[in-house]
Amino acid sequence: MSNFGFTISKARIIDYDANDRSIAEYIAEHEPSFRVCIECGCCSATCTTGNFTRFSLRELQIFLKRGENELVRDNIGKCMLCGKCILVCPRGVNTRNVVTLAREAFNKKVKNAV
Amino acid sequence: MNKHIVVIGAGVAGMEAAGQLSNAGFNVSLVEKDENTGGHLNGWYKLFPDRRRSSEVKDYLDKLINKDGIKVISGTTIEKLVNINGIFSLETREGTEMTADAVVVATGFDLFKSSRKEEYGYGIYDNVITSSDLEEMFRKDKIVLVDGRVPENVGIVHCVGSRDEKVGNLYCSKLCCITAVKQAIEIRELLPETRVFCFYMDMRMGGAHYEEIYREAQEEWGINFIRGKVSEVSESIRKKLIIKAEDTLAGRPLKMELDMLVLMAGMEMSEGGRILAKSAGLETGENRFFASADNHFGSNISNIPGVFYAGTCTAPMNITETISHARATVSDVLNYFKNRS
Ligand code: SF4
Ligand code: SF4
Ligand code: SF4
Question: Which of A68, B48, B141, B159 has a 20 to 30 A CA-CA distance from A5?
Fold first, then answer.
């Protein structure tokens, strides 16, 4: 293969095969509504935390599903568990429980999660 | 063949079914709850995909049912339907009765009542209107705010009352995405200085010519499409509407001041349909529309032999599909009588 003189940045690409999705699996098992999110962003639009800090519950959920756990681990503490997001979710995702379970999974170090 | 068929509902489906049944030789009574035939067609100005005037379709249907074999009975609501040895007895709210050898239910849909989505402020803020209110403005060739000014920034909210567990409607109404695109273009045609923003979760451009119109909206009319569900609407002291959404593709919360907000109201099983379903024992699905006997080859057939369905009383459909669906009823009705004789 010819050398183009650059490499694909490791930080950018989602390495789906290598990534660990056990946290997402743990959440889905205990809170099946986690599976039905359609990424509409209603939760994150209404979230007070998200309006002031780099925090989006929608984004965190998709990151977990892709096994990009570090980003989630570093931000999930920001949620105040106020539950505003549950009131607006068109898919009835129990968002607050998703956050609680994610925290739990990180604490338990589910499998080899970060 | 002197069989008598009662068609319930004189919207697009009912009129088409009545006309085609009459062409096939049946005696038809077409019963309509309103004073006029045409149903929702009367509330629309121009239709997608080609923006033909709805009155043209109405004229076609009027001609189709204007014949000796069809008796139009308007201002009459059928509330009861009983099968007595293969003959149907129908009772009206007004207290009259009629009989039929077969019945075609074409009770259509009701538009979702947008005030049920309180967070969008319909009925609370003056300049929050629905897609059907906007058609009314198009008909008058004039889009104005309540104070008479011309709106500079208009937002369009997709999926109002559809795909929303909070209002109990899990299904997609199928027509509101293309309606949003059509109306966005029409706003820009009338008001070239006005900016239009569509807030969508998915652009469902599944019909013939839809995707091309979507492209035209971007390319020729500069319509802005933002992927995110509007979470709430409030009003500033200057009477501007402030909306909140997440711009999910940018990954950031977004706030915007608008002059007018148009809600794309979804479709629900009509109230008339619900009353009839209950009294006659017609099965309905999870989406509350009438449940067809088979999804593939029995979409016009109900759980009661001799009762058939036409159009949007079974699911959201556009006018093209509604007309095809109504025509298909005729072959099921013919088979029904063939198998009985
Ligand atoms: S529960 Fe957490 S994510 Fe939801 S609105 Fe409150 S702070 Fe935001
Ligand atoms: S509101 Fe519900 S469906 Fe929408 S992004 Fe949030 S969790 Fe997902
Ligand atoms: S057609 Fe579009 S606007 Fe209507 S319910 Fe479906 S996705 Fe939402």
Answer: A68
Could you give the ipTM of this predicted complex? 0.89
Do residues A31 and A101 touch, judged by C-beta distance below 8 A?
yes
Closest CB to B231 among A42, A91, A92: A42
The domains spanning B4-108+270-340 and B114-267 adopt the same CATH topology: yes
Q: Which of B133, B113, B125, B145 is nearest to B232 (CA)?
A: B125
| Ligand 3 atom closest to the CA of B200, numbered from 1 | 3
Tokens describing residue B7: 């068609």
User: Domain locations in chain A?
Assistant: 22-113
Instruction: Write A73-82 long-range contacts (CB < 8 A, 24+).
Output: A73/A106, A73/A114, A76/A102, A76/A103, A76/A106, A77/A103, A78/A49, A78/A53, A79/A49, A79/A55, A80/A48, A80/A49, A82/A48
| Cβ neighbourhood burial of B315 (10 Å; 0-12, 13-18, 19+) | buried
> What is the rounded CA–CA span in Å between residue B226 and residue B327?
39
Using the Cβ of B159 and the Cβ atoms of chain A, whether some distance falls under 8 Å is answered with yes
**C-alpha–C-alpha distance, residues B226 and B199, integer Å:** 5
Residue B165 and residue A58: Cβ atoms within 8 Å?
Answer: no
List of residues 6+ apart from B110 with CB closer than 8 A:
B267, B268, B269, B270, B271
Class of the CATH-defined domain B4-108+270-340: alpha beta
pLDDT one-digit tens code per residue, B132-181? 999 999 999 999 999 999 999 999 999 999 999 999 999 999 999 999 99
**If 0-12 CB within 10 Å is exposed, 13-18 middle and 19+ buried, where does residue A103 land?**
middle
Kindly state the DSSP code that residue B128 receives in the 8-state scheme.
Answer: E
Q: Is A114 helix (H, G, I), strand (E, B) or coil?
A: coil
CA proximity to B130, closest of B263, B290, B39:
B263
Tokens describing residue A93: 């995702």
Q: Which CATH superfamily is domain B114-267 in?
A: FAD/NAD(P)-binding domain (3.50.50.60)
- Quick one: tokens of B160? 């109002």
| Contact criterion met (CB below 8 Å) for B220 and B189 | no
Task: Count chain A–chain B contacts defined by CB atoms under 8 A.
Answer: 66
- Overall pTM > 0.90: yes
